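Lab manual, section 2.4: Encoding a predicted structure.

Procedure: take the sequence of the chain (233 residues), apply the prediction step described in section 2.3, and record the output as structure tokens. A sample record is shown.
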Amino acid sequence: MGYEAAFFDLDDTLYPYPPCNEAGKRAAFETFRDLGYDLDREAFDALYATARRETKRELRGTAASHERFLYFKRALRVHADVHDAADALAIGGAYWDRYVERIEPFAGVEETLRALREAGLTVVVVTNLTTRIQLEKLARLGVDDLVDRVVTSEEVGREKPSAIAFTTPLAALDLRPSEAFMVGDDVEADVVGANAVGMDTVLFNADPDRDLTGPERPDHRIDAFADVTEVAL
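Recorded output:
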């Protein structure tokens, strides 16, 4: 294929997102209760969903739209009509601490990234969200030494599928789009975004119950991370 670089999404591509999110939400709920706010888990989940929905509506297309500290800051206002910086920090910190503790890579991630590097490809992570937490996730995954470059939506100012998320690392590496491919789990962000700038795409779906069919067509589909090497090498 003549590829010089492999681009990867992070969340739900290098590791499974749902168990981490659930662990984080459980820790946030426990902290919410410990701080004296009276609600059960069902009410907490509804409150979280409301705060998340409102934040995303107002900040759509930005890295901040994913930030849990913003969700919990808003949740305190919705639930108790209060502003309490210490409580918002405690709840958000509990969420992210437990989330990161729960992270484990998908099977084959380390071996695959190592094989790509040994074959001479540059490994790039292109991810939506704020930089600090994405760096924490990579450090926890234990594969950061196999990653050459990380590009977050916070630093480029736009979320995938914006072209700038892909053209920024391509330009930094002095590569044409045809010399790199993108691996991700999100059809719109990863497949549509990368295809639009001329990159080949690999749609990774580790969950057989998740329906990723649609009018968009990735160049490749895989359900095991190790299959990336069949595309690249």
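Check your result against the sample. The first strand starts at residue 5 and ends at 8.
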